[in-house]
Design goal:
This protein is mainly beta. Helices cover about 10% and strands about 45% of the residues.
């Protein structure tokens, strides 16, 4: 079963997690920050590192590695927080490093293979750029099942 490729092409911010490259639609990205002090939140899911105060707006921050079932990694000078708009709420995603903004055409995007009968919920497709594959995320689907409903952002 193939999903419609129409509308998946465009500009993506690419980033690295565990040596794999991912992409998010650039229109979903609000800011890219170095790692700021993060205030832990009691009883938050294991992948939620806490919240940051970004110019008076309290934003939940998740560790993308933990969200995707990877091992946690020490913060390095290349570690970044990508602030994204998820269904109207801002959220920070900790990533290993940000790569670049790139155009990926619709004809360069294929559906992700189905694994274990799942529906690949949250993967827009696989972008083939040169000899590399970039996992293109639908950030609204990837994040909507968790932090946005559990930890909304607040204005101070």
């Amino acid at each position: 079963m193939t999903t419609d490729v129409k509308g998946r092409g465009g500009k993506y911010l690419t980033f690295v997690l565990n040596e794999e490259q991912y992409g998010i639609e650039i229109l979903k990205v609000r800011e890219i920050l170095g790692v700021l002090p993060i205030t832990p939140m009691p009883q938050a899911p294991h992948f939620v590192k806490g919240v940051i105060n970004l110019r008076g707006k309290v934003i939940p921050v998740i560790d993308s590695r933990l969200k995707f079932g990877m091992m946690e990694k020490e913060v390095t000078p290349e570690t970044c927080i990508i602030v994204v708009d998820v269904n109207g709420a801002w959220m920070g995603m900790i990533v290993d490093t940000v790569k670049e903004v790139m155009d990926i055409r619709e004809d360069q995007i294929e559906d992700a293979p189905r694994m274990g009968g799942g529906d690949n919920n949250g993967i827009r497709g696989l972008g083939k750029v040169g000899n590399q594959v970039k996992i293109l995320l639908d950030i609204d689907k990837v994040m909507s099942d968790m932090v946005v409903t559990e930890m909304p952002s607040f204005d101070l």
